[in-house]
Amino acid sequence: MVMGIRNKVMFCFIVPIVFMIIIGVSSYQKAARGMNDKYQDSTMQAIHMATEYIDMSCTFISSEALKYAFNSDLSRYFLGLSTDDPYEMSQLRDSYKKEIAAARAGNSFISNIHIITMEGIYMISTSANTNTDGFYKAYVESVPSNGKSVVSWIDSHPLLDEQLKLNSKSDQYILAYQIQSQANKACVVIDVSSAAIEEFIAGMDLGEGIPFYSPLFSHSKIGSMYFLSEMS
Q1: pTM of the full predicted structure?
Q2: Which residues, in sequence order, are CB contacts of 43 under 8 Å at separation 6+?
Q3: Could you tell me the pLDDT band of residue 163, with boundaries at 50, 70 and 90?
Q4: Sheet holding 186-193, edge to edge
Q5: What is the pLDDT averaged over residues 205-215?
Q6: Residue partners of 164: CB distance under 8 A and separation at least 6
Q7: Percent of the chain scored above 70 by pLDDT?
Q8: Per-residue confidence (pLDDT) for residue 200, from 0 to 100
């Protein structure tokens, strides 16, 4: 009889405790799932905003290149129409060298801007001196093309790197946008800074192994899915 009462008392204590444990575990799991869902939602929102920002930067870079490729004054320069007046040529070259330098300073994603001209015409670049002869034909032959024009986004331009000795840390680029001039007498190349991209992604602080996608990264050099853990 005593043992029966003891068992009943123990049962009365154990049952509520078991129910409390079950309820506690269930509540914890629901809360954990809710927090995880909120974290994922906020993370994906941050990634989406970052993707839009980088895509906007890429659009700006392509627009900047287009501006120089189809500029009327530069078109005359590319064609050598001002060769009879060396002073005018020099003034025009210096003016646009300052302009592309200002464009680079105003956008951290740009590491360099190059305007590659034909042989016999000095090229314009943020990393070249004022007396660097153009090598347009050799350059166009050295980069990928679609049969009609050069491919817009490329991951390297070895000939340009060699000619201008682009080997300093500030010259490092992850991708480059290029476009030929209207008369196919010059090619504008804008390098996208490796350091700026790495700094931007690292600053997001989303944790390791989180995929970040942008059309900018859908290139063979870094793949369409870029993992932040590889940036550390």
Answers
A1: 0.72
A2: 206, 207, 210
A3: very high
A4: 124-125, 110-117, 186-193, 173-180, 153-154
A5: 50
A6: 114, 125, 127, 128, 132
A7: 70
A8: 80
